[in-house]
Fold:
Amino acid sequence: MLSRNAAVPRIVIVGGGAGGLELATRLGRTLGARHRAQIVLVDGSPTHIWKPLLHEVATGALNTGEDEVNYFAHGYRNGYDFEFGFMQGLDQARRTIRLSAIPGSDGQLLSPEREIGYDWLVIAVGAEANDFGTPGVAEHAMFLNTPNDAEKLRHRVLEQAFRASSGEAPARALSIAIVGGGATGVELAAELNHTMCELHHYGARLQPERVKISVVEGADRILAAAPPSLSAYAEEQLAGKHIQVLTGSRVAAVEADGVALSDGRKVEADITVWAAGVKAPGWLAGLDGLETNRINQLVVDIRLHCAGGDCIFAMGDCAAAPDGDSGRMLAATAQVAHQQARYLADELARRLDDKPARPFAFKPQGMMVSLGKHTAVGSLAAVVGPKRDYHVEGRGAKLIYASLYRMHQAAVHGWVLAILLFIGDKLRRAARPALKLH
Structure:
C-alpha cells in the first residue's frame, strides 16, 4: 500500500476516460507539478481513446495506434502518477482502494492485488452497455463501449464484407442491424455506410447498395434528446444513404440471424450492434458505504460528493448528478464529464486552501452528431443574450463536430501539441489509406 503519511495530500482518480484524464491533467499541472499534492490516475488500460470517436475506431477511420494516449508517458509530462489496474474494493475507514492483480500475456502476474491510500478520491469509471434484460443480447450482439469493443466490431465488419464479396459468384448481400437510435447508433450507421463505399473503392466486390444497414429505435424518432427538427434532418440524411430507420420498434430478442421485434417483425442481420443504453459498472453497488441508483450510478449531490462517502467524489457517466441550477439529473455525455472535470479541478484546489465549497452548475453547449464524412447536424447554445439554440447542419456542422475532438486534445496536451497533432493527422491521411484494413 502506498503510504498516506506523505508530505503532501494524495488525490486518487479512478478512470481515465474523457473526464478522468482531463481532471488528472489539470490537477497534475496545477498541483502535482508544484508539489502541492500527489495526483494518481488509476485505470485498467494503459491507454486512452476519446469515447465519442469509437464509431470511427469500429470502422477503421481512426487508428487507435496513432490517436491513443499512453497514461505512463502522459503522466510523466503532466505531473501525475499512473497506476495500472482495475479498482475492485474500497475501505473508507482506512481511506484505501484495492486494485486487482494484473496478469501478463503468458499468464504470469505483472502485479499482485494492492492497495492505494487517498486523501480525496474521485471515481470516474464511465459506463457499460445496458441490455435491459433483453434475451440474446449477450450471446449474439456486439457492443461499442470500449476500444476493445470497437476493434472487435471492426474486424467483424471487415471479415463479413470480404466474405460477402469472395468467390466468383456475384457478391451476396450483407445486413447490419444497430439497436439504438441515439447519437452512437446514428453515427455508427452513417460511418458504416461510408466504410462500405471505401471498401468497394479498395477492391471489395461487395457493392455498397448490397449492404443493408438498419437502425432500430423504440422511441418515435431517432435522436430523441435533440429537437424534432434535428431528428428529422438526421433521418433524411440516413435515408439518402439508403439506411433504414425503424422507429417505434421495440426489441423482443436478439437472435443469431437478426433482431426480433415485439410486434412480430424480424430485422435480418449478419451483424447486430447493441447501442440502446448504458449503465454504470455493477461493482460500484458493492463499494463500502456508497449509495447507488437502479443502474448502479453513484448518487452524488450538487458538489459531486458521493452519498455515504467521506472525501469521495464521482463524475461522468458513473455518477447520478443533479444540475446545480435546475436540480434535474444530468445526461451521460462527454460535455457533462468535461465540465465536471473542470469544476473538480478548481474545487479540489479550493479545498487544499480551505475555501468553502461551491455547487456544480452545468452550462449546456448543445449537441453535435456526425452523419458521415462530410456532414453533421446539431444545435449550439447561445453564449450571450437570451437562452436559445442555433441549429446547424451540413459541412459547417461537420467542422464544428471535428473541432470537439481538437478541443479535447487541447485540454489533454495543450494547444501547441494539439495543433501539431492536427497537422500530423492531415499528413498521415494524405499518405495512407482512408481506412485501417488489417
